[in-house]
Amino acid sequence: MTCKGNSLNEELFQEALAENKCLRSSVLESVPQAFSSSLEVLTMLIDWCDDDWIFYINELFDAIKPLVDKARTPAIKDESALTKDVKIITGLAGSPSKRLSHMTSLESGTSRSQSDEKEDPWGDLNDRVKRLERLEVFSFDELQKLQQGLETIQEALLVLKLNSQVIRQIREHYQCLMTQYRLPALKEIKKGCEDSFLQYCRHSRNIEANIDAHQAQLNALLLLVKESKEMYNTILQYKTIQINKIYAESAHLSTRNMENIANKTKRETSSMHIITFVTLIFLPGTFMASGILEWPQVNAKAPWRLNKEIFSLFFGLSATITIVTIVVWMIILFMLRRPHSERVKYAS
């Protein structure tokens, strides 16, 4: 008989042969005794197929349990209300209690406006970032550990399945040998080894039952690891999606802020244009009246009268300079705005 195993199996086998005197070749005096001895050695071999499996399964479970518990207990708030987030970002969020309402007082006839504070989109994003920080404990390394555990369990299931198959085939072979073959040499073996053969069959079935129990434990552990791996994948995908979503909404908020700044700058620029226009209207008259032209002195005690020639000269010069100044200012303003309009047209 050739038995393949490691050094531990060899040591245990040699100890069993040394301790059990019935297994020594010098003690065996007949064929039934030798056959019974071979069945006992075979029983010893199939016993090793069941040894220490319970400890191995417990070690696998202890190594995977922290990852499984972590995957089953994440505090994740479902943020499926995407429309709410979009409305907050775009400034369209507004329940009736948060919109600007106008109420007229019957006693005074005055109008009062009440408005609640709008939700701060940046504050909402900060809260969501803090919630995502709780998911930092879920890493890709732990997902790899779950995958390694999954592969180890599958290998163990394959070994148990092959062991059970080999034990069953050996038992069926001996059953066929003891029941179906009608050789004269087997009559003495059947008569002298019936008890040993029945004991071997019963023991092999017990080993198969234990192996089936180990397979059931590993199948349950395999299902648990698969579910935990799927949960890890889902959590990591959820974290990635939420991070991308926050980046997109943050960029949209920045764009809106830049748009608000641009609109504010545009309004201020319009106000400055109005001020400039008014200044240009009054500046020529002020300039002409500042002493650049000499007018005849008028006696303060003389009665007031309108000097049409002087007034016509002053008005003509002031109006002409004002018109020329406004035309030049409008031409310059048009030339400054033209490149911007061309860029907008080109972009569109």
TrEMBL record:
Query: What are the CorA-like transporter domain coordinates in residue numbering?
Result: 2-70
The protein's name in its UniProt record? CorA-like transporter domain-containing protein
Query: Bias regions of kind Polar residues — which residues?
Result: 102-113
Q: Membrane-crossing residues? A: 274-293, 313-336
For this protein, the record's InterPro entries field holds: CorA-like_dom
**Keywords attached to this entry:** Membrane, Transmembrane, Transmembrane helix
User: Cross-referenced Pfam families, in alphabetical order?
Assistant: CorA-like
Region annotation Disordered: where it falls in the sequence: 98-124
